[in-house]
Amino acid sequence: MTPAGPAGALDRLARADRLLVALDFDGVLAPLVDDPSASRPLPGSADAVRRLAGTDATTVVLVSGRGLDDLATVSGFGPPVGLVGSHGAEFDARLSELLGRGGLLSDAQARRRAALLDGLRELVEATPGARLETKPAGGAVHVRGMDPATGAALLEQVEAEWVRDGVEATAGKDVLDLAVLRTTKGAAVAALRDVLGAGPVLFAGDDITDETVFGTLDPGDVGIKVGDGATAAGYRIADPHELEPLLHRLADARTGAVRSGPGR
Asked: Strands across the sheet with 138-142, in order?
């Protein structure tokens, strides 16, 4: 992290004519928990997200590895906050229309997904504590809360048996996500920036998968890594609680900048 931290960079972003704010959910807006279904955003961060989404010339999207419906349920967000699920494979209805996205899977991919889910379900059911999350493009095997050695062994087995031609794997914190089409959060954010005609981008993430965004940010963008681990982000904070005041600072500054006129 730079000595001054991200606050000054956010003040600069607040003066942009058009701004895209993209945020991961788990570990960023919501503290990590063993039971994914129990995850909820910090109330202060949720309030800041809604404030930003209500500001003119500002687009706010959540970009998550969760399936789209699951993300909507645990986050509690809907329009005007945009939702991108399954590492960029799913966009909510408003964003899909904006991007001109049609059906997700071909017939061959749908058959491959069905076989994949059958195989993953068999492995998960044989491993107490493991969980399978089904997604429109595949599934994710979660091992958070399990004995670390047992969880790691399961993920290795899943990768060995199911990562093959036509099935892509994305590793995260205590999870292996498998999909029958290639998607990344970085590609999703880039597509949104292009179609929205946005200038700078703010992205905050905590996981390995978020590096696909950090690694593609432009010099005028701001990337904030939440937590430990190697990163291409320009800034780092300790946990979701530290992000909350930063989002409110941006909302405050963005509101004032928009009211006084773009670029001033």
From this structure: 131-135, 138-142, 175-179, 168-172
- pLDDT greater than 90 at residue 150: yes
State which amino acid sits at residue 165. D
pTM of the model: 0.78
80 prior amide bond cis, ω within 30: yes
Instruction: Identify the band that residue 230 occupies on the pLDDT scale cut at 50, 70 and 90.
Output: very high
pLDDT at 238: 96
- E strand or H helix that includes residue 138: strand 138-142
Assign 89 a pLDDT band (cuts: 50, 70, 90).
Answer: confident
pLDDT at 234: 96
SS3 track for 241-263: HHHHHHHHHHHHHHHHHHHHCCC
Instruction: Report pLDDT for 74.
Output: 97
- Euclidean distance between CA atoms 204 and 249, whole angstroms: 15
Tokens 């979701």 belong to 240
Predicted confidence band of residue 262 (pLDDT cuts 50, 70, 90): very low
Give the Cβ contact number of residue 260 at 10 Å.
10
The rounded distance, in Å, linking the Cα atoms of 188 and 264 is: 30
* CA 196 to mean position of chain CA atoms: 18
- Which helix or strand (DSSP H or E) is residue 51 part of? helix 43-53
